Amino acid sequence: MVELEPLFGANHLSMAFVDSATLILVCFPSIYFLLIKPTLRDLFAKAEAERALTEVRASNEFLRQDAEERTRVEALERTKADARIQFQARILAVVQQAVVATGKGGVILYWNRFAEWMFGWTEEEVKNQTLAKVTGFTSEAARTGLSGFGAVKGWTGEVKAVRRDGTSFPAYLTCSTIWRADGSVAGFVYTFMDITERKSAEAAIRDSEEKYSTVVENSPTGIFIYRNGRLEFANQRFFQMVGRSQNDLAAMDVADLIHPDDWGMVREMWRRRLAGTGATQDYECRILHSGGETRWISGRTALIRYGGEFALLGNIQDITERHKAEQALRDSRETLHRLSARLMSAQESERQRVARELHDSIGQSLSAVKFMVERALEEQTAYGPDSPQSRSLRAVIPVIQSSVEEVRRISMALRPTTLDDLGLLATISWFTREFQLTYPHMEVERLIEIEEFEVPESLKTNIFRIMQEAMNNAAKYSQASRVTVALRQVLGDLQLVVGDNGVGFNPGEVRRHTSAGGFGLASMRERAELFGGSLILTSSPGEGTMIIARWPLPDEAIS
């Protein structure tokens, strides 16, 4: 009995558990539908409500932030717009043009400070006034289209504006249309710019152009502009010179105007001038007249800017008549040179003939008389050596001898026989010795640095005559103590130098030729130039005088 109680107790518990489980299984559906399911549904609904509430809160926060951002952006845009409006207002206030805005009917809505300065009206004074009334060009506005359809299209041009004090001035006006959003016209904006100075400058330019046009067209010389191988401009005088008309300018070729023999020279000179290489400005050439006549012109060019490029401004003058006169003068001069050469040659021939006659005729006759007198003295027998007759005859002999020597001197002065017999160098030596004897107070220095065969025969007489005249002038006028004579070859030229250390003179003072003055400087220069040479005289007071005569030597003489 005692042992069965625990077992009975365990069974009792098991049965109780089974009964409870059965009860639960039987009652659970009812409990679920009556208690659990409503509870779970309430909990789920609450959770959904909380989630929806959270989403609504988040959405409201986003909308709030978006509204705040939008408000901030709009405020920023308004600030920017206000700043832009203020900036534009400042620009309109300080712009150096009068800016006026009007309604469609022309009533002034805006008037900037420069408009106040330009017209003399303040912005308050012009409000509700029309632009035409304030500026005073109603009729002109009507003519130029500043109202109605013309203004709608916009307009720019020059007008005559009127200030408050009644004075007028030229202005450049622009008119622009102000459009509404719907495309209709709201008003107009006008800008005025005072162009008084510009108009004055234009008038000055026109006056200058008219003045220079008058000068150019009435110039006695031909004027042209040369660029890119073409003539861009030419005045009427130029067309007269070449025998063309203004209509021919476009098709005119410069090469057809200049003589073919001169075109190469002119073209190269113009090319160098345009290149800036320092070509000469002045030139002379021949041009071809349309009638076939060849004429000479003197030209001058200057480098200028024309049309944004370098060009030549040319000036030409017809020198045909002058050229003919110069050619005639050159021909006459050549004729005179030839005549002078022939006269000098004839003079030298006559000198030579007279000198020979004096030497051979009178000199020999005097020598014969002297011989006869001496012979008579030797043959005297009736009279003694101291008789009056003998003394008279002896007195005649020195006179006759002196006459013979005088004849010889005159003969040598006319034409030294040594020049023909011994040559130039021997004649120079003889003449300098005689000069030293005649003028003992003057020292003669002789420098001969050339051989006789190196001196052309045609120059010998002229060299001697120039030396003779220069030394005689030194003896008469220089008061020198030394005279130097040099004959040498310098750089292919035969050079004669005669210099002294005398008082000198001013070469600018022209010495007149007199009968007592010999050949003179002009004669020496003429003798030098007759054979293609030149003569240079240098002197100054107190510095002595030097005469240099030069002749170019032929190649065979130089070698």
From TrEMBL:
GO terms for biological process: regulation of DNA-templated transcription. This is Oxygen sensor histidine kinase NreB. It comes from Candidatus Geothrix odensensis. The keyword Iron applies. NCBIfam families: sensory_box. Its cofactor is [4Fe-4S] cluster. Its main location: cytoplasm. Member of the two-component regulatory system NreB/NreC involved in the control of dissimilatory nitrate/nitrite reduction in response to oxygen. NreB functions as a direct oxygen sensor histidine kinase which is autophosphorylated, in the absence of oxygen, probably at the conserved histidine residue, and transfers its phosphate group probably to a conserved aspartate residue of NreC. NreB/NreC activates the expression of the nitrate (narGHJI) and nitrite (nir) reductase operons, as well as the putative nitrate transporter gene narT. The keyword Ribonucleoprotein does not apply.
